[in-house]
Structures are given as C-alpha cells and as structure tokens.
Specification:
homodimer, 321 residues, alpha+beta, 3 domains, 10 helices, disordered N terminus, DNA-binding
DNA sequence: ACGGCTTATACTCATTCGAAGCATAAGGAG
DNA sequence: CTCCTTATGCTTCGAATGAGTATAAGCCGT
C-alpha cells in the first residue's frame, strides 16, 4: 500500500532532499585466448559506468559515451540488461539513491591504438565456480557447498527445504544437471548466504569466510552476473557469437568461443552440423594450419542471415567429453 | 564520443536545471471471457504509473504501491520489462526528461470489493492486428500493409529493401509465418511509418491516416506492446499462465487463456499432452458440464513444480484450425 | 618414406519432440 | 434414441537432437 512509503526518507539529515541518481553501467564482453572477458576500470574492480545526463540523446548513446570515454572502446552491438535499484541496506546517512540501468555490449578485443591499454578481465576471476569446461571446479565441493549447507541449517521447516532446493538447482547436485544459465541465481545465493565480500560490506556483521572470486564495487559483480547469464542464454537462440569473433575464423575457434562463454564443452560434430545447416557461415576458400593437425577451412559470418531469419540460433548441444 | 553530449540541454530556458524523473509503469495482465486484458487508468488511455520515490523500498515495492493506489489491484507475480527513456523528439521547452521503468504483472481479474471498479481493457483494442485466433485480421491487408508499402517506397536501395524485410518478417507475408512474439517490432514499424497517433503527436507533421487501434498517453502503448511480447514469449517456456487462472479450471479453459494471450489457436490434443506430461496440473476429482458437451474434468495447478523444475514450460504448439 | 599424432570432416544410429489426424467417450437437446 | 458437442486417448510421420564411428589430411620424428 502507498502507506508503506516513508516520507521522512526523502530528506537527508541535513534537510536537503535526497538525490535520485541514474547510472548507466556496461557489461562489455569479448573472448581472447579462449577466455571470456569483461571490460573493466580501476584495475578490474568496477565496470565502466557513469550518470545518465540530460545531454545524452538516449540511454544507449549515454552508455556508449561513458564506455568510450573511460576505456577508449567503441561499442557495436548492445542490449539492455536490467535496471537495479540499490539494495535495501543503504546507510541512513547516505543522502542519495542510485538506479543502475545496465547494458550488455559485445565486441572484439582489439588493440587500443594510442590511449591507455584496456583493462580486460576474465569472467572467471569473479566467478570461479562458473567455468565447467574441465568438469565441475573443485571449489564448488570444497569451498562453496559446505558453507551453503551450513546456511541451510540455520532455517527450519519449509524455508530450509526451499534453500536446499535452490542450492540443488543452482549448483546441479542431487542428480540435477548443471545449468550454466543460472549465473545470477548462484551469485544471489552466495550473497544471501553472506559468502561473497559484497554481502558483508552491505549487510555488516562478520560472517562465514569468503569463497574465492574477486569482488567489485557497489553491485557491479551482480550486474556482471546478469550479463553473463543473458549472454549464455542468448547464444543459444541468436547468432550473437559472431559479434565476438574476428572476421575470419575456423569452426573450432568458433566452438571454443562458444565454450568459453557457456563455460562448458559442446559436441564438436553436432556443433558443426548446426552451424552449417543454419547457413550462418560461408567458406572463404582459405585454410589455416596452425594447430598441428589437418588444416581447417576458414569461414566468415554471413550477415545476410541477420535479416533473413530473425529467429536464427546458434544452439549449443552440450556433451560430457 | 563524450563530445557528443550537449551541456546546454541540461538547463531549461529559465535557467533551472532540467529534472530527471524516474517513473514506474505497470503492464498488468489478466484474462476474462477469453480476452486478454490490461489494467488501465483514465478510461483506458494510460497504464498505472507513478514516480519512483525515495521512500520506496525497492522498484518493485514502488510499483506495487502505485498500482494498488491507482486501481485497488494488489499484484502477485511481477517481473521487470524494460527501461525506456523519452524518445528523441522532446520539445525544447520541456524542462524535464523522463525515464520509465516498466514491469509486467500477472493477476486474476477479481472483483474489486469496495472502491471503484477496475478499468480492464482488451489488448486488442490497442493492437487490433495482433489477434489471429480467427485467422489474420482483415485490417492487416486492408489498412496496414498498403500504407506500410507506400512508406517503403519513400526510400531507395538498401534502406528500402530493409524496410520490406522488416515488414515481411513482422507481418508474416511473402510466405513467412506469422510470429506472434513480434508485437513490439510491429508497433515500432507502425510508429516509424507514422501510422499510429503517437507518432504524429511526437514527431509533428501530419501524415498518413491512422490505422485502427487506440492510442495511449506518452509511450504507454509501446510499453504495453513490450509487455504483451514478453508474456507471449514467456508462456512458452515457463508455466506463467496459471497466475492468470482461477484456482480450478478445465483444460479447455486453460487452452483458451493461452490462445487469448498468444492471439492464435493451438492444437488441442497436443496441448493437453504437453500439460499433462509435464505434470503441471492435477485433477480435483470434480467435473464441470457447462458447455453442452461431455463434462470436463476440473484441474488445479500443482505449485510443487515451481520449485521442482525451475525450467518447466507451458509450450504451445500452434496449429491452423 | 613411414608410422604415429593431431585435428578436421563425413556419416550413421537411436531417441525425442513437434505437428497433425483418427478414434472413442460422455454428456445434453430434440 | 439419435445427433450435436465437447472431452480425451492414441498413432503416425518427420524433423531435430544427442552421441558415436569412420575417414581424411596435415605435421613430426625417426
């Protein structure tokens, strides 16, 4: 009910009205050396971001401005992710309230010509539990599940059962399959259980020891998780990987990029079948023999399909090996 | 580049800094009498909406407050839709800039007890071209495609081809199938072609005659289109229809609700198989014989699946008849 | 030159899933 | 008691999916 709002919070202790600030935050992704990366600032502790200002022509334009200004990286494809408000726990003295409108951008990790080098950081430095390309990381069983289970025990009855269920689904235990798309759910779980630094920072009260994984300022790690989740979902039904690829590539390189993003391996033969039957690529005629085996044909993306089939998909069929 | 921003726009002509306003806008959906409806205010000319204020505990909480205050309707399930900024064409004198954070809410169309009656309006009053349950509406061929084609002709070369393609995909012509999810793309097309009232209002300059379909204030009709599109997509992979159903229902009622939302018919037998094999419902033991044929079994939703399979889906398999 | 290693690419097979249609059951109306 | 209507059960067919086997084409060291 409207009665729930508390007018007193609209003013800071000095009597000035609190500001409502709108920030634009970018998750910019690229793949280099088979590692998915995010563009960061401040030595990897924050995502490119800045306030939305009156002069910006649009949200997207404002975002592009900030990213380019802070990192020198021009953006191609971008899409909106989510709009976050501050978490509940704002210190009383803090006389402003921030809204973060987040975007996902895809780009190639090109060299900056002049200007400072760009600060690309591997996703998995922030989310070491998300890379399952070499099987489930040991830190899940060693460092994550034990404290999560302890957290479960703090509750009784239905609430406990619900936590168990969320953990089982999120981390793929009790015979459930690992679902690489649940990046955000996993992070939120760890946040709620106060296993990530951000939770202690926000919530106060020392708690369980942290688990591995680099924190970020404010809720930037949460936003990054949202971006990764979105990309992992989208890659399955839209040919967005190509935004991250060089103009010419082999099918194995393409597959490695998809695997890097998804954090899991795909069945090679089926992957190729899918790509080719959807006519997403065409041969350049050239081949490449860098990897020691039979030379691979080089391909390029067929931009025609972008228009042709607005519903094309680069699905990945997961395998074990 | 940052240089693109124009600081002069940050101040109105009277020298005061322009305000940045954040609005919460709700698309609240229900199904009554086999018609999908949206909750509106002002005789159907606007969606429930209000500013996000400091006192709101969260975006969601603020939205619930406004909807309940303006319509008396309490909300259950809600999810964020999209965040819009004003369209480019703001009159120079207008000393504020608005951001709209939109949400989709699902509810049953229950009777308001006390308080004013709620203002539910059929989706298809706003988007008459979206209801294909009785085949493609004639207004598409009669009132929409001719001016759209004329609009196409205004351009030459590649741009013209691109418009053609967008129209073909959006409206399912040239042998393409109708895709009910492209609600927003269709509306944007009509907006760009200045065939909806909102475009004239925003853009100035009288143009082609309007096509049928009620307008709304600001960009509320665009937001409604976004909500419909989201719901039509989501219904296929998540059991969200049940939020819109009474506690007990027959399978045909369920099917009719899905059809109302999707704006197209589904294959009855396959629909039932899908619902039952996914164990989304259970029999109540009762039957209902209101429709003149064999009495139908009554079912209720099994909330257990919400937890069990976080990836369950109520897919709809489309048919022609 | 040749066997062995590596990667690329072609084909096969089984299972599931999706779309569509046929058949039967069980009420009410005339 | 027959016809109409709706409910519900079952088959069929083909496409898509997941997984495995087989073959090709380079390089490398001996």
């Amino acid at each position: 009910m409207a009665a729930g709002r508390d007018k007193s919070k609209m003013y800071a202790s000095d009597g000035r009205p609190r500001e409502l600030k709108v920030d634009l935050v970018a998750v910019v992704a690229a793949v280099t050396d088979n590692d998915p990366r995010a563009l960061t600032i401040s030595q990897g502790s924050a995502l490119p971001a800045g306030p939305f200002e009156m002069g910006h022509r649009s949200l997207q334009a404002g975002l592009r401005d900030w990213v380019e200004q802070q990192t020198g990286q021009a953006l191609g494809y971008i899409e909106q992710l989510y709009t976050f408000a501050d978490r509940d726990r704002i210190p009383e003295e803090q006389a402003r309230r921030a809204i973060s409108i987040s975007y996902l951008g895809l780009t190639r990790d090109e060299w900056s010509e002049g200007g400072p080098p760009r600060d690309w950081q591997s996703w998995y430095d922030y989310f070491p539990w998300e890379d399952h390309r070499a099987g489930a990381p040991s830190i899940i069983a060693d460092a994550i599940l034990p404290p999560l289970r302890a957290w479960t025990e703090q509750q009784g009855g239905k609430a406990r059962e619900e936590r168990r269920q969320r953990i089982a689904i999120g981390f793929g235990i009790d015979g459930r399959p690992w679902n690489e798309e649940l990046v955000l759910q996993r992070y939120e779980l760890l946040y709620e259980a106060a296993l990530v630094e951000e939770a202690l920072r926000d919530g106060g009260g020392a708690r369980a020891p942290h688990i591995p994984g680099r924190p970020m300022i404010a809720d930037h790690r949460r936003i990054l998780a949202t971006g990764i989740a979105r990309l992992r979902t989208k890659i399955k039904y839209r040919p967005v990987v190509f935004e991250l690829m060089p103009p010419v590539f082999t099918l194995l390189q393409l597959q490695r990029a998809v695997e890097a993003l998804a954090g899991r391996l795909v069945h090679k033969q089926n992957f190729r079948r899918l790509i080719e039957q959807q006519e997403l690529v065409e041969e350049t005629g050239e081949t490449m023999s860098e990897t020691g085996g039979r030379p691979a044909k080089l391909f390029r993306f067929r931009p025609a399909v972008l228009m042709e089939r607005s519903a094309a998909g680069t699905k990945l069929s997961v395998s074990r090996s």
